[in-house]
């Protein structure tokens, strides 16, 4: 059930006690277009335009959660057109400080076949035409990004997946391509030869934008296919990705819910302090 949409301006103050606030954000990917029951839909504007969809806010496992499908609920935004900045800004404006990001990925090794859950620990940016910073005027801000993901969020995801009987792969490198096309076999083989593990289209700039807002960000990658250079055959197709994702969504949703319920209430990771001592040219929501 959903209550009527509330409208908030970009910088609306939020409080932990309102139905328009949340502490944890979930950004759903391909095939993951809804998550919560009993939601309030929040129409929220940001300096970067509206997010991919109104944000669905509700309660889950005793936690206030905000959900946004990154491609929109009708998958109208291709990966290079997703309003990444608006999505992250809107989540932070609602009070979110920890973000969980499920996505469908291709595997660059036959060791991790379709249905494997991977919590990568590194990222390679092969995108080419996406705004990837909030700090592009007035003063330079350089955030540390050597370890792109929240260590506590990663640990929580790994523990939950193990407990769910879905043994996860701990670590690996996600290469993010510009898309929307899939990789050629030569590109795919080259990625694998570099020792990279997974390939996707949305992990960048989502992770770095979260870092620039001092948010915790945890990727949860579901392998939907072996990428074109890894497997002989026709190569990856969108329908294959969506089919395999749909086959797994029934166990992915409860896993995401379990991770949400186990994320810490106090952040003891380095993420909250990444902007300390920096002179920010913009006010964060
Ligand atoms: C649906 S085929 C390719 C599409 O799937 C992945 O989406 P997401 O990361 O949002 O789960 C991939 O990155 C592409 O956007
Ligand atoms: N093989 C692949 N390449 C890029 N993005 C993907 N998302 C799911 N599978 C993918």
CATH fold node name: Rossmann fold
Q: Kindly, what is the distance between the CA atoms of the first and last residues, rounded to a whole number of angstroms?
A: 29 Å
CATH superfamily annotation: Nucleoside phosphorylase domain
Overall CATH class: Alpha Beta
> Structural class of the secondary elements?
alpha/beta
Give the helices and strands as they follow along the chain.
EEEEEHEEEHEEHEHEH
Q: So, CATH architecture?
A: 3-Layer(aba) Sandwich
- Alpha plus pi helix count: 5
What count of structural domains? 1
Question: Low-confidence parts lasting 5 or more residues at pLDDT below 50?
Answer: 1-17
How much β-strand is present in the residues? 15-25%
Topology:
Blueprint: E1 2-8, E2 24-28, E3 39-44, E4 55-60, E5 63-69, H1 84-93, E6 98-107, E7 117-119, E8 122-126, H2 151-163, E9 169-170, E10 173-177, H3 185-193, E11 198-200, H4 203-212, E12 216-226, H5 238-262
Parallel strand pairs: 1-3, 2-5, 2-6, 6-12, 7-9, 8-10, 10-11
Antiparallel strand pairs: 3-4, 4-5, 6-11, 7-12
Feature tags:
binds the ligand CSC[C@H]1O[C@H](OP(=O)(O)O)[C@H](O)[C@@H]1O; globular; disordered N terminus; Rossmann fold; 285 residues; 24% helix; 5 helices; binds adenine
Describe the structure.
This protein is α/β, with parallel strands linked by helices and 285 residues long. The chain has a single domain, classed as Rossmann fold (3-Layer(aba) Sandwich), CATH 3.40.50. It is built from five helices and twelve strands. It has helices spanning 84-93, 151-163, 185-193, 203-212, 238-262, and strands at residues 2-8, 24-28, 39-44, 55-60, 63-69, 98-107, 117-119, 122-126, 169-170, 173-177, 198-200, 216-226. Strands 1, 2, 3, 4, 5, 6, 7, 8, 9, 10, 11 and 12 form a twelve-stranded mixed beta sheet that branches. α2 (151-163) packs across α5 (238-262). The longest helix has 25 residues, at 238-262. The radius of gyration is 18 Å and the shape is globular. Mean pLDDT is 93; it is low at 1-17. The site of ligand LNRAV4D5 has 13 residues, from β6 and α5.
């Amino acid at each position: 059930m959903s209550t009527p949409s509330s409208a908030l301006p970009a910088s609306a103050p939020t409080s932990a006690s309102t139905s328009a606030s949340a502490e944890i954000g979930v950004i759903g990917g391909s095939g993951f277009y809804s998550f919560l029951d009993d939601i309030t839909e929040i129409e929220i504007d940001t300096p970067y335009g509206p997010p991919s969809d109104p944000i669905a806010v509700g309660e889950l496992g005793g936690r206030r959660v905000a959900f946004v499908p990154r491609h929109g609920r009708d998958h109208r935004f291709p990966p290079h057109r997703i309003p990444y900045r608006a999505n992250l800004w809107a989540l932070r404006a609602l009070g979110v400080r920890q973000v969980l990001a499920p996505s469908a990925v291709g595997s660059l090794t036959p060791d991790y076949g379709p249905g494997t859950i991977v919590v990568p620990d590194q990222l390679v940016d092969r995108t080419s035409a996406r705004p990837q910073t909030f700090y592009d005027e007035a003063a330079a801000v350089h955030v540390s990004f050597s370890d792109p993901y929240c260590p506590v969020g990663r640990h929580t995801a790994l523990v939950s997946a193990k407990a769910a009987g879905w043994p996860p792969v701990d670590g690996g490198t996600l290469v993010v391509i510009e898309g929307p096309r899939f990789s050629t076999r030569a590109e795919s083989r080259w990625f694998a030869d570099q020792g990279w593990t997974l390939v996707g289209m949305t992990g960048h700039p989502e992770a770095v934008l979260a870092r620039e807002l001092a948010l915790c960000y945890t990727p949860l990658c579901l392998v939907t296919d072996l990428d074109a250079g890894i497997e002989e055959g026709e190569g990856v197709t969108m329908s294959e990705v969506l089919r395999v994702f749909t086959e797994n969504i029934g166990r992915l949703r409860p896993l995401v819910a379990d991770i949400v319920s186990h994320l810490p209430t106090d952040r003891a990771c380095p993420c909250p302090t990444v902007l300390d001592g920096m002179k920010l040219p913009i006010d964060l929501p």
